[in-house]
Request: fold
Amino acid sequence: MRVAVYARVSTDKQETENQLIQLREQCARLDWPIVLEFVDYESGAKSERPEFQAMFKAAGQRKFDLLMFWSLDRFTREGVLQTLQYLNRLEACGVAYKSFTEPFFDSCGVFKDAIISIMATLAKQERIKRSERTKAGLARVRALGVRLGQKPVDIDPGDARQLRNNGLSIRAIASQLGVSVGTAHRLSK
Reply:
């Protein structure tokens, strides 16, 4: 059985090494050769993770038979439907899956769909809680008078429209006014 492992952390300031060590040791104990490793330093709340997409591409090319990940929340935090779709996509490619820390969670059990649903829901709820904590922190900082985000644009839209009427491109207007192309486009309407 050819194995691929997938590890993920949310930022490049975190380490995947603990996950990888345990996944490698488990595969060695079971005498399963690891043929590919996929490691992302991205939020699990989105699917546009480079290695996550590369893993699905390799699965479609049948480069491995089993995908092993450390836990479901390391695989994805997008919720029940998306998690089930990803796992079904692996199965459609003929690839089994297994969680290292959740031995009850693999593609062989009769209760796999129920367990996947529960675990995916918990992973999504953790992501929602983190988002709520971040929003609360931002609200507290705003209440202290700290301005967040970009500086306001203090340019008369009439100036931008006049430049546009004079035949300047949006990019030239942006350069002349010292704003982004998007802001120049918005102001020149």
Summary: Residues 157-187 form one domain.
